[in-house]
Amino acid sequence: MIIAETDRLVISEFTIADAPFYLELVNTPHWIKYIGDRNIKTIEQAENALKNNNIKSYNDNGYGFYKLLLKSENLKPVGTCGLVKRESLDDIDIGFAMLPEYERKGLGYESAAKIIELAKQQFKIKRIVAITLPSNKGSIALLEKLGLNYEKTVIPFDDDEELLLFAKNL
Asked: Which of 50, 63, 79, 119 could bond to 98 as cystine, CB 3.0-4.6 Å?
């Protein structure tokens, strides 16, 4: 189901049929370095991750992470952007990731700006946050460009890794 469009992208819900793309995306070097290895190594594991995370979030929350399809390349899937409610955070978290060949082309900003607009207007979210590694300079720059401001350091997961938390009131 199409959620929104931007100048260059169609933003759509993931389906189980997207497992091959999802498998590729979660195993890219920057995903593993900055988001973490999800130990998804087969199509079946990718299908289960989509079903138990992305698709479950659409049903439970009305939003989730979406597939980004590039209009100029026949709607080729090139990344993801969306919203997630994490138990370890008080507010809704925005996140994004691109295939390596589509990084640094403005697609992260374009998709995240549209997702923030949807968060406010369609999902009636009052505040969003984002978490990132201190070493992820690209993500930090993008969050700041989107109008999120650094608030504090958090340890949201069991790995004891400190992450920077950025936030924006909508």
From this structure: 79
Beta-carbon contacts of residue 53 (< 8 Å; ≥ 6 apart): 64, 65
| 163-169/127-132 β-pairing | antiparallel
Write down the residue that tokens 């070493």 correspond to.
135
Per-residue pLDDT tens digits of the chain, which is 170 residues long: 999 999 999 999 999 999 999 999 999 999 999 888 889 999 999 999 999 999 999 999 999 999 999 999 999 999 999 999 988 889 999 999 999 999 999 999 999 999 999 999 999 999 999 999 999 999 999 999 999 999 999 988 877 789 999 999 99
Given a contact cutoff of 8 angstroms between Cβ atoms, the answer to whether 156 and 131 are in contact is yes
Q: Cβ contacts of residue 64 below 8 Å, gap of 6+? A: 13, 14, 53, 54, 55, 56, 57, 58, 82, 83, 84
Interatomic CA distance for residues 75 and 94, integer angstroms: 23
Cα 165 from chain centroid? Answer: 15
101: left (phi over 0), alpha (psi -120 to 50) or beta: alpha
- Which stretches does DSSP call E strand in 29-75? 65-70
How far apart (Å, rounded) are the C-alpha atoms in residues 131 and 94?
8
